[in-house]
Amino acid sequence: MPDVRAQFWSSKDYWEFSERIHEAAKRGDGAAQYYLSVALNTCEYMYGYYFIEKRSGAPPRIRTLDEAQQLTATRQGSGYTPDDVHDVQMQCQRIMSTKPAPFGNAAEWMDAAMASGYPLAQANAAFNKAFQARNSQDPETSRVVRSEAQALVVDALRTKDAEVVLALAYAAPFLSGEMPGEALKSQWTWVMAAYLRDPNSYSLVEWTKEMCRHVSQCHPDDKIIDILRRSAGNDLEEIERRARELNEKIDAGTFDESDIQAMP
């Protein structure tokens, strides 16, 4: 079937997108399962955040577009503009207003994509396990879960996909046992590695837009490297060196659990 990833990033209506890939997801296509999960999860979170008003002792009320757009003035932490809220309505209104849920459950589709071995789903699971390991009060549980997360990182990297590398930027620092400052440097290293692999990948373009929602110094024509340069500061040269070393290991297929433990 056509590139599901490209279809997702270009979609203006997640109902049409979900309807188009639903059968493939049911047949076990990992990409269809993953992006169906992402579409449904986006609607559950973003449409719910802006359009669903929960009322004590009464059923939820659906806000009008004008009401939802006005919330951007009071929910500035999200970084969303009135135009972004309009896009959310266009993408999600039909899915969120149809009961029962027409395309299933986001979490179940993510589990299915993980079972299919889809690399971006593995990266997502690695982050969840890494977070669980970091916050577990039981040392043995933490060790086991961290080991599972590290194995998922290594397995996901076999695809050598820039978007997978970017997704792992959020998991790897949790797995290395670094201090907070070094963990942030590690995260920028993975972002830089993804950028060096494919600066125009869908996820990196979206990552740039998302970062600029929350960074006041962003300019409309900013590129990923501009954000990295501002964020990394004097560490940029070291981060780029580490990123190139990381990519060399990924390309050679030699990256393993010991590399995670040895970071940075």
Account of the 3D structure:
This protein has 264 residues and is mostly helical. It folds into 2 domains: 4-110, no CATH class; 119-262, no CATH class. Helix content is 69%, strand content 3%. The chain is built from 15 helices and 2 strands. It has helices at residues 4-10, 14-26, 30-51, 65-70, 82-96, 106-115, 119-135, 139-156, 162-167, 172-175, 180-197, 202-214, 224-232, 236-252, 257-262; strands spanning 52-55, 58-62. It has a two-stranded antiparallel sheet with strand order 1-2. Strand 1 (52-55) and strand 2 (58-62) form a beta hairpin. Helix 2 runs antiparallel to helix 3. The longest helix has 22 residues, at 30-51. The radius of gyration is 20 Å and the shape is globular. It starts with a helix and ends with a helix.
Concise summary:
This protein has about 260 residues and is mostly helical. Helices cover about 70% and strands about 5% of the residues.
Short descriptors:
two-stranded antiparallel ribbon; 15 helices
Q: Give the biggest sheet.
A: 2 strands, antiparallel
Q: Could you give the distance between the termini?
A: 40 Å
Based on secondary structure, the structural category is: mainly alpha
Biggest sheet, spatial arrangement of strands:
1-2
Overall pLDDT, averaged? 89
Total number of strands: 2
Q: Return the domain count.
A: 2
Number of helices: 15
Q: How large a portion of the residues is in β-strands, by DSSP E?
A: under 5%
Q: H/E series, N to C?
A: HHHEEHHHHHHHHHHHH
Low-confidence spans: none
Helix-residue proportion: 55-70%
Shape: globular
CA-based gyration radius: 20 Å
